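Long-time lurker, first post.

We've been arguing in lab meeting about whether zinc ion would sit comfortably in this protein at all. Half the group thinks yes, half thinks no, and nobody has a model to point at. So I'm putting the question to the forum: if I give you the sequence and the SMILES, can you give me back a predicted structure of the complex? Inputs are below. Any interpretation is welcome too.
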Amino acid sequence: MSLAFTLLFALFVGLAIGSFLNVLIVRIPKGENIAFPPSHCPACGNALKWWHNIPLLSWIALRGRCAYCQSPISTLYPAVELLTGLLFATVALKTGLNADWFVTSLIFALLLALSVIDFEYYAVPDSLNLTALALALLTPLFLFGWDMATGSPHPFDHYQSMLVTRFEDAAVMAASFFALGLLVKLAIKKDALGEADIIIAGTMGAMLGFPLVLVAIYIAALLAIVPALFARNHMVPFVPFLAMGTWVAYIFDEPILHWWSSLYA
Ligand SMILES: [Zn+2]
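Top reply:
Settle the argument with this. Predicted structure of the protein with zinc ion, as C-alpha cells:
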C-alpha cells in the first residue's frame, strides 16, 4: 500500500468521524439525544439532505450558508472535520492502517471534541472523557495480531503486560494530577485542576507511558502560559493544551525519547 493511499484513506475516514464529532460537540453539552432528530439547521430548523452533510465539501459548496435560509454555518464544523481528518492521517503515519490506528485516532478525536467543548462551555462531559480513558486503557485488547517472528498469534501475556502498564501509568498520572490540584488549591485557594483534567491525565498516561507523558504535560503547560497571561481573571480552558501536548508527544515520540535518553547518557 502506498503512503499516499494510506494518508488519503485515513483523511477520508477522519473527515467522516469529524462530521459525527460535530454532532457530539453540539448536542452533548445541551443534553440532547445524539441520534435523533436528524441533522437540521439551528436557525430555520429544516432537516438537512445528505448532500448538505458531506464533510468539508458541503460547507465549501454552500459557501458556509444554510441551503434553505442562507444563515451562516459556523466555521467550527468544517474546522473540526478537517482537524479530525488530519488527526487520523498523522496517526496513520505512525501506525499504518490497522486497529491501533483506528483506536488511537478515535481517542485523539474524543480529545478534540473535549477541547472544543471545554473552550465553548468551560465544562467537559464525563461521558466523552471516560470513553476516551476506557479506550486508552483497553487499546491492547484491540491489537490482536500475529507475532511475525514465530508466525503464531501473540500469547495472552503479550496483551496482559501492555494492559498492566497502561493501567499503572494512568493511575500514576491521575493520582499526580489529583495531588497537584490539592496543593494548588491549598496555595492559591482556587480550583486549578478539575476532575476532568485528572481523567485526561489518566488517558494521557495510558496512551503515552513514561517518560513521554511528562513531556506532553510540559508542552501543554508551555502552550497554556501565553493565553493564561492574556486572560488574567478569565479561566483558561486547559483541556485543549493537554490534547495538543498529547498529539505532539505521540507524533514526535522518537526524537523526544532520543533527546530524553541523551540527558542521562
Ligand atoms: Zn437554515
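For your lab meeting: Strands lie at 146-147, 152-153. The mean pLDDT is 90. Whichever side wins, do check it experimentally.
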